[in-house]
User: Which sequence fits this backbone?
């Protein structure tokens, strides 16, 4: 009885685990390809329908190919000014939020001080609050203080929700940072400010750039918080929202495609630079 | 020397000051105002006054019970779907991605490069009544001749799942990527089959990613109203739709504020229950 048990133990894997091994080898790859097809399908739809020539007001079914939507990308009233506003807000919000966020990240990683834990919570909370609550609470603040809604309320809101993202991004880089380089600079007679300028800043520059790009991307894409605090101003996502109620024109797809291509190019360049850097380092 | 030390003591606070001030004034204080507003009574025309009107909370819960429950239900289903859909791919990239890892990750976040509203509108196109998905399902008799996908709960949940998928896939990938391959070799040296090695080593070690991904997906999903608005019918509306219309269309601020707080509380409770469940599961997992 026991001999049988001993013989059975090693060697041949069970049918179940052979199935698993097969799944692991082949099915997983096939599934992943399907997954990426699913992930990219809506993007393809956005791109393809930017060349559509819709007959009615709904850009739902394919009618025919045209360059016109791209040639007259601002041919819909309001679309141009909404893009300009979105760019202005995203640029200012990402600059301010990255500056404030980098300072917080430096303080959190570099110094031991009273209130560190509560600062960490303050940074984490906006990230874990639903956007609608962020937007609604700011709206109540502005309403109660009789603030006029418009450019400044949108900008304030965008800086607010970008700060935490900037802190997290820069912090990640600072944590894996060799402090000996700064100590060496100080030993060589540099004061704190010179060390920061000549050593720290160049080393964390990629993280600052990443934070800027992330904040820019989040800001330009934001709908919910902006919707609550925009008054009569219209950013590009708000324009899309308004247009969707009566049937979005193909120009919306044109701008969507353009943003996608620009963002993708920026990210690809980033990935390539990282790959070259890691090659040069080793 | 003394001066230098005092200076260093102040530096962190000076660095923190502007950002923390900004978050305090425009995040913490507004939450307090939201709480204050939620206990007011009156209406937009005669003005609101603070009366400790706890009734706002009971009214919100009683009148919009189904929207609250639907939000939690849709968010939970979408989160579970996102987990099941993206786990194998995160696994595949982490263990089989090789030198293409970064590029594949770029594909994972690619949907984020298309404006949120535009990619939801793209789903509206894909699922529309004359679209190829509906036509295919009709010819396969999955859908009846007049059957549709748009304006159903299926469309809303599908939209939410898609829109927050990268939030699930990325933390999963990060936790799977960190697993030391030698652990799996050790498991196999100890006669674990590949399946057992997965169940007893890989899966438990990836749990932090599962927890992070679940929270990152569930929280925004529960507060979402865009998918329900664009892909659903009024009877698919979630609590976000109600809050939005009460604030911006009906100017019923106290009720909307109370609902925002209930939504936050509901999410906190759900997260807490979930953390407890996962925590004990992890404990038993290591004990066995």
Assistant:
């Amino acid at each position: 009885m026991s001999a049988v048990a001993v013989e059975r133990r090693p060697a041949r894997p069970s049918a179940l685990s052979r199935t698993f091994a097969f799944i692991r080898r082949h099915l997983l790859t096939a599934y992943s390809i399907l997954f990426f097809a699913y992930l990219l399908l809506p993007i393809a739809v956005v791109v393809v329908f930017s060349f559509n020539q819709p007959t009615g007001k709904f850009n739902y079914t394919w009618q025919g190919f045209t360059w016109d939507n791209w040639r007259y990308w601002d041919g819909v009233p309001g679309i141009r000014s909404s893009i300009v506003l979105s760019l202005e807000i995203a640029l200012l919000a990402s600059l301010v939020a990255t500056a404030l966020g980098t300072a917080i990240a430096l303080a959190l990683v570099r110094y031991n001080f009273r209130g560190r834990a509560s600062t960490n919570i303050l940074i984490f909370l906006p990230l874990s609050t639903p956007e609608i609550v962020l937007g609604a609470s700011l709206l109540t603040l502005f309403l109660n203080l009789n603030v006029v809604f418009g450019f400044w309320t949108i900008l304030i809101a965008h800086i607010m929700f970008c700060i935490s993202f900037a802190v997290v991004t820069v912090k990640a880089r600072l944590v894996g940072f060799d402090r000996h380089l700064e100590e060496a600079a100080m030993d060589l007679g540099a004061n704190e400010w010179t060390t920061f300028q000549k050593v720290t800043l160049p080393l964390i520059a990629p993280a600052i750039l990443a934070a800027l790009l992330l904040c820019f991307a989040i800001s330009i894409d934001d709908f919910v918080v902006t919707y609550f605090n925009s008054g009569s101003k219209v950013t590009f996502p708000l324009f899309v929202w308004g247009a969707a109620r009566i049937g979005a024109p193909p120009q919306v797809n044109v701008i969507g495609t353009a943003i996608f291509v620009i963002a993708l190019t920026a990210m690809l360049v980033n990935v390539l630079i990282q790959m070259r850097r890691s090659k040069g380092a080793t | 020397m003394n001066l230098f030390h005092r200076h260093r003591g102040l530096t962190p606070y000076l660095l923190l000051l502007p950002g923390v001030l900004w978050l305090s004034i425009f995040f913490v204080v507004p939450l307090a105002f939201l709480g204050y507003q939620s206990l007011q009574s009156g209406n937009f025309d005669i003005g609101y006054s603070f009366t400790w009107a706890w009734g706002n909370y009971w009214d919100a819960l009683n009148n919009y019970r189904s929207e609250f429950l639907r939000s939690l239900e849709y968010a939970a289903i979408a989160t579970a779907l996102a987990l099941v859909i993206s786990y194998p791919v995160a696994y595949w990239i982490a263990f089989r991605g090789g030198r293409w890892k970064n590029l594949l990750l770029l594909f994972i976040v690619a949907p984020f490069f298309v404006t949120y509203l535009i990619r939801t509108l793209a789903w509206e196109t894909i699922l529309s009544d004359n679209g190829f998905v509906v036509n295919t399902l009709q010819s396969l008799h999955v859908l009846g001749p007049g059957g549709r996908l748009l304006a159903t709960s299926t469309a809303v949940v599908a939209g939410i799942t898609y829109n927050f998928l990268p939030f699930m896939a990325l933390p999963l990938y990060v936790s799977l990527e960190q697993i030391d391959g030698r652990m799996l070799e050790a498991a196999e040296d100890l006669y674990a089959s590949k399946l057992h090695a997965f169940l007893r080593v890989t899966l438990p070690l990836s749990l932090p990613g599962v927890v992070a991904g679940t929270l990152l997906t569930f929280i925004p999903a529960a507060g979402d109203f865009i998918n329900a608005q664009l892909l659903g019918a009024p009877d698919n509306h979630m609590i976000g739709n109600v809050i939005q219309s009460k604030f911006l269309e009906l100017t019923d601020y106290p009720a909307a504020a109370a609902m925002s707080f209930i939504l936050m509380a509901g999410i906190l409770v759900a997260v807490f229950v979930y953390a407890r469940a996962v925590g004990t599961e992890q404990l038993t997992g290591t004990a066995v």
Q: What stands out?
A: Residues 63-287 of chain B form a domain with the MetI-like fold fold (CATH 1.10.3720.10).
